[in-house]
Amino acid sequence: MPVTQKVTVQGERWFPSEQPFSNEIKELWGNWYCDSEVGKLRAVLMHRPGKEIEGITSENFHDFRFRAPINPERARKQHDDLANVYRTHGVEVHYIEGQRTDRPNAMFMRDLMFMTPEGAIVCRPAIPARRGEEKAVAKTLASLGVPIIKTINGDGYFEGASAMWINRETVIIGTGSRTNESGACQVETELRNIGVKNIIRTQIPYGSIHLDGYMNMVDKNKLVIFPWHVTYDCAKQLLDLGIELIEFTNIDELKLGMGLNFVALEPGKVVMVANNPYTKQLLEKNGIEVVEVVLDELLNGWGAIHCTTAFLNRDPLKP
């Protein structure tokens, strides 16, 4: 009888796996995901203020783009309090490793990365005073095992707070002083590549630098907005998608108290800056549960809760 010879297939004749990246990310990389601003929050990336905020005084705070001097120890205590609120609600808090000590705005992590269902987009800040912060972000993401699907390059600049998830198929991207057309196009290309169908493009007006300065999601289909900064075209597209727009009209709490600069812990529940009674009342009137944290020292850097928090993992937002 003839002997059947087993043929060993050589490497050059191997066939590739045609599994999409999204099917393998959890097994091969880890549980990293974000397709909304409100899905149950599971993991965040933060930077606890370090040496970089020391020496900001009444004589030089304008040079660092702060609105007032900052007390380093009090700022760190408030940052720790926010991190503990996250932990209390089951959120894993990761910290940046090896950040520069000459970048006092580095605590505002939202600007430095934008999380997607398939990994992080590493941003490129607009102003020279923040350039270079993103290197430590990229190194930390790599050490955690978070895929980096894009680093903004060329003549583009883009900051993470210039984009906002509405749902898995819809993202708002704003252009303005912190994100130019090149940066926005780079982000849009990546988002469309991973299945985002609706990109709502809008201008961020003079007087705001990021979207979270005048809008923020509080629930699956609820968006709080400062109406005088939202363009008609943007509002109309959101309404057509079934998004309820809750109008926030207290400019003092918007600008000085940063009332809209909150983070959703889950659909219908947010952590917000304390001492904003109008904001709290408005949210509760619309069925939103509120957790407050004192953050007035960090506000001296023109940022609050949403600014300090980069999302790493949220539960997928179900239709």
UniProtKB/TrEMBL annotation:
Regions crossing the membrane: none
Any one GO BP annotation for this protein: L-arginine deiminase pathway
Superkingdom per UniProt: Bacteria
GO molecular function, one term: arginine deiminase activity
Name under which the protein is recorded: Amidinotransferase
Upper classification of the organism: Bacteria, Bacillati, Bacillota, Bacilli, Bacillales
